[in-house]
Amino acid sequence: MPENEPQKSSFEGTKTISLSDSVTVSSKKENESWGAYDEKWGFMFNDIPKEFLTKNKLENFLLARKEEDEKKIRLKSKPYHYVIEPTNVCNLHCPLCSTGNGAETRDKGFMRLNNFKNLIDEIKDTVLQLSLQNWGESTLVKDFPKMIRYAADAGIFMRLSTNFSVEYDEN
Fold first, then answer.
1. Among 170, 132, 171, which residue's Cα sits nearest to residue 151?
2. Parallel, antiparallel or unpaired: strands 129-131 and 81-83
3. How does pLDDT run along the chain (171 residues), one tens digit per residue?
4. Residue 23 — φ and ψ, nearest 5°?
5. Does residue 80 contact residue 124 with C-beta atoms inside 8 Å?
6. Which residue of 51, 85, 98, 130 could cross-link 134, Cys pair, CB 3.0 to 4.6 Å?
7. Looking at the whole model, is its pTM more than 0.85?
8. Nearest to 53, CA basis, from 155, 160, 159, 158
9. Contact partners, residue 150, CB within 8 Å, separation at least 6
């Protein structure tokens, strides 16, 4: 295959092609029971600290994967990866971003802490990973630190993408 030409993939979902694709690193933690499963679902169990992995979450995940493999239409499992957008407001004006260039695709706003808590209470027993971003800058939400604390206290592992351009008071 010629250099820099995209490779055909047997992976489901998203595949990132990189110039470094010719470099392969294979690793597995010792005594890692969760890491034995196929990693095609978009994140690695090894990234999730053990205190966030529970028997109920594993059972739900295995059921979800089984239902996906069997192409079930009616599911008994719950989603194991959620994306919650605390805001769709951003402080930057990136020209290629619909939020940054001011496109009026939907009303702008901030999620209320009580709404966030209600969502967390609904998903906490089955969610393996919660992504706290989408088309806005989550750190603009006044109660964002409280949101993170509430989700962590509920046993939820989170990821966040931010532009790190918001300045905060030390208080």
1. 132
2. parallel
3. 455 554 444 444 444 555 555 555 444 555 655 555 455 555 566 678 888 889 999 899 889 989 988 999 999 999 988 999 999 888 888 877 777 777 777 788 899 999 999 999 999 999 999 999 888 899 999 999 999 999 999 999 999 888 888 777 765
4. -95, 125
5. no
6. 85
7. no
8. 155
9. 113, 116, 117, 120
